[in-house]
């Protein structure tokens, strides 16, 4: 029947779109990474749930496509957006030139937006989104992107600042940024967006270098205009009275 | 009472989050740019609506803050996200060091995500978001950001590709990108996301240069891996069977 690739946002129901909720309600089978399926499982009793482990993305997408080909309504859940670091592209890749099963992509709140809202408004102006995971991307390429983003005065949202086997990536990334940006550049970290233990902290780029981030953190680097206003991380766009 | 800055996404109700719907339902006053208020007005009868014209952002935010200070529940609507090119930052700026009225930022689907989903999955990997509006940003800075984004092999989402008084910005931006990227680089344009007349087109960067975009378009430039799969714009992240 149809595979719907659903961005569920940061994890709590209120940050899901009506369209995402509807897609899960209408699905017979919900497929996903174990951790994300656990986020929605209790809200959708009576569904069939299929999960795979952390690095089994291709297996997961193939499984979802197969179930849909059998005639089932299948929803594949992705945390955040279904596109941004999500599974939509891989589903299209694995389906290839065929148009069967139908694929629908339902967007969701990515951490740049949901985490930005917790911190204040750090991404009001042009920005870049960079993952520090070098599992699928050479570290040299990540370094080059950090450099260009800093040189271009983009605000930056950093995903995957740390994970198993990559304990020092955030510090390494900050060292690169510190070659270009001042130590005082204002940054923010948000943890457990929209979940229990949600937490936001503002700090300088120098402090961020030694911050103990974990895999539930999203990191924001301000641009040259970013400042702290009443405890919030705010990047002005430059609106004036006209 | 409280000012809630609400990202309403691309415009149709199904792309709003549950939290955004709730914020509008609970508001006594809904404030916004006329065009965005018109998108939600019919769905929330019995509210007080306050609107201002296109470049009156500061006036609009002041009005919203004043209404909240009077003890009303106020929702300020922003198209897309409340942060990304939205009004959240300006509300914090205008409130200044005070903590009154309370401000809550409710994130919404930005066009990078909602438009990406219409085209396929162009932003699976690191990406940059750049507005071509030079009303508040010097054109030289926009040019520099385009150059750095291309050099860093970011996929790029371009907002405000054209507007009154800026008919040639997209062509100018493409000329800059064409200094670095090949003419064949795959791009996409999406128009009227989530609204009547929604439309997606794939084309080369060379074709994009002469494309007649309007202010309802969001433009996507692929990275070096982006390709067309069964009519969709897809940027692989590089997942393989493991």
Can you tell me about this structure?
The structure is a homodimer of 242-residue chains. By secondary structure, chain A is of the alpha/beta class. Helices cover 31% and strands 26% of the residues of chain A. Chain A has 8 helices and 13 strands. In chain A, the strands form 3 sheets. Chain A has a 5-stranded parallel beta sheet, with helices on both faces. A 5-stranded mixed beta sheet of chain A has the order 7-8-11-9-10, sandwiched between helices. In chain A, a hairpin with a 7-residue loop joins strand 9 and strand 10. In chain A, helix 3 packs across helix 4. The longest helix of chain A is centred in the first third of the chain and has 13 residues. The interface between A and B is large, with 81 and 81 residues. Strand 7 of chain A pairs antiparallel with strand 7 of chain B, so a sheet runs across the interface.
The rounded distance between the terminal residues' Cα atoms of chain A is 54 Å
The number of helical runs of chain A is 8
Low-confidence stretches of chain A: none
Gross morphology of chain A: elongated
Secondary-structure content class of chain A: alpha/beta
Please provide a brief summary of the model.
Two copies of one chain form a homodimer. Chain A is an alpha/beta fold.
Topology at a glance:
Two copies of one chain form a homodimer.
Chain A: E1 2-7, H1 18-26, E2 29-33, H2 34-41, E3 48-52, H3 57-69, E4 73-78, H4 88-95, E5 102-106, H5 111-119, E6 120-121, E7 127-131, H6 139-151, E8 155-159, H7 169-178, E9 186-191, E10 199-204, H8 205-209, E11 217-221, E12 227-229, E13 232-234
Parallel strand pairs in A: 1-4, 1-5, 2-3, 2-4, 6-13, 7-8
Antiparallel strand pairs in A: 8-11, 9-10, 9-11, 12-13
């Amino acid at each position: 029947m149809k595979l719907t690739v659903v961005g569920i946002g940061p994890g709590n129901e209120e940050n899901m779109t009506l369209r995402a909720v509807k897609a899960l309600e209408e699905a017979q089978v919900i497929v996903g990474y174990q951790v994300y399926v656990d986020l929605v499982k209790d809200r959708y009793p009576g569904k069939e749930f299929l999960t795979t482990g952390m690095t089994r993305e291709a297996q997961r997408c193939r499984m979802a496509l197969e179930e849909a080909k059998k005639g089932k309504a299948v929803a594949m859940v992705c945390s955040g957006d279904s596109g941004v670091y999500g599974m939509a592209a891989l589903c299209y890749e694995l389906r290839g030139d065929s148009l069967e099963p139908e694929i629908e992509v339902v967007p969701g709140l990515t951490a740049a937006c949901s985490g930005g809202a917790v911190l204040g408004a750090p991404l009001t102006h042009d920005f870049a989104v960079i993952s520090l995971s070098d599992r699928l991307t050479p570290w040299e390429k990540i370094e080059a992107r950090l450099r260009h983003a800093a040189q271009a005065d983009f605000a930056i949202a950093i995903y995957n600042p740390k994970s198993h086997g990559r304990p020092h990536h955030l510090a390494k990334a900050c060292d690169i940024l510190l070659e270009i940006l001042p130590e005082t550049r204002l940054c923010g970290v948000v943890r457990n967006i929209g979940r229990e233990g949600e937490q936001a902290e503002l700090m300088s780029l120098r402090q961020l270098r030694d911050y103990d981030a974990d895999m539930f953190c999203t990191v924001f680097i301000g641009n040259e205009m970013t400042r702290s206003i009443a405890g919030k991380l705010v990047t002005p766009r430059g609106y004036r009275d006209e």
